[in-house]
Every structure is written in C-alpha cells, then in structure tokens.
Amino acid sequence: MNSREKILSAIKTNQPQLQQLPALEQLAAVRYEDKLQQFIAVLKTIGGTVIEISNTNEIIEYVKYTFNDHQNYVTTLPQLEGINQLDENLDPHILENIEVAIVNALFGVAENGSVWLTDDEMKIRALPFICQHLVVLLDKKSVVNNMHEAYNLIGNNTYEFGVFIAGPSKTADIEQSLVLGAHGPKTMTVFLCN
Q1: Are 111 and 30 in contact (CB under 8 A)?
Q2: What topology does CATH give the domain 29-193?
Q3: Could you state, in order of their start, the residue ranges of all structural domains in the chain?
C-alpha cells in the first residue's frame, strides 16, 4: 500500500458519524414589504445600475447610447434586433473582445441583489464573466425575497450550470483599494420589465 492509499484509508476509517441535516423551516428567512424596491436598493449599493423599462427597444437605445465608444456587442435575446446574436456553438475564446453582453435572468433575489442565470440564458458560460459590461433583462415579478426562496425555485430543476451574479466584479487589496472589473465585468446594468 502506497502513502496515498494509506492516507485515504485512514480518512475513510476515521470519519465522524453521519448526522441529519437541520430542518430549515425553523429559520426565519428575511422577507420584505416591497421586495422589488429592496432588490433595486441592494443592487445599487453594490455598484449595479437598475433601469425600469416598458419594452426591450429601450435596452437597445440605452446600450448604444451609454456604451457608444464600444464596438463589440452580443446578446442571447432574440428580440434585440440589430445586436449580434450569440451562437452557442462558437469557440468561447472569441469572446475575449466582447465589450457588452446582454442576457436574460430567470429571477432576482432582493436580499442580496443577485440574479440567477443558467446555461440556457448564457449560451456560453464564460459570457457574463468575460465581457466588460454585463446587461441583464429581469422580469419585475420574478424577484424573490431571499436565498431560501431562490433555492426552492432552483432545487428541483435540472440544468448543467447555474450562477448567481450580484453587481459588477469587485476586489480590494489589503490597503482597501477597490478595483472594479478585475475578475469580470466593470459594470452591471439590470433592466426591469413587466
């Protein structure tokens, strides 16, 4: 028996007894009087931008006006005419020059200002992380109060990949110098619609 096998054998024989998971029903999850307004407030606090719209044409106008110095736009939303549609069969390496990515989110979480995306919304997993500016379309009615409700929504679904994204990418060093966009998008804009 080699050293690796000895270590794994020792771990296997010295594991603690299995215990039942605690019942989460006893925990009082946070609920908001107006979960949409809470979502907006939290997302703004963490550096995101929130814009309420009545139709998707407003997204095109906003993106082209706000990011007018950028050339490479891509979307996974077929209703956004005039913006390049992302082909999920593309090599992800070509996304390195994407400046603005526009995707749809399944729902938002008021507690932390995050949105939930799966492979179906992203088409290519790297898209919301490699772009310079992330733009998300979110139905106002799909905002839930807290992560408990969020996990109840996603728990019984089948998907290969999913991620919560909250605001633009941020990191800070020991001197507390905040850097936006170090590990992902510099900005995140959420368009709320009915």
Answers
A1: yes
A2: Rossmann fold (3.40.50)
A3: 29-193
DSSP string, 41-100: HHHHHTT-EEEE-SSTHHHHHHHHHHTTT---EEES-TT-TTSPBPPTTS-GGGGGG--E
Distance of CA 25 to the CA centre of its chain: 26
Q: Are 145 and 153 in contact (CB under 8 A)?
A: no
**Using one digit for the tens of pLDDT, what is the confidence trace for 139-177?**
999 999 999 999 999 988 888 899 999 988 888 877 778
Q: Is 26 exposed, middle or buried (0-12, 13-18, 19+ CB in 10 A)?
A: exposed
**Amino acid letter for position 127:** L
pLDDT per position as a tens digit, 65-104: 998 877 788 999 999 888 888 887 888 788 888 999 999 9
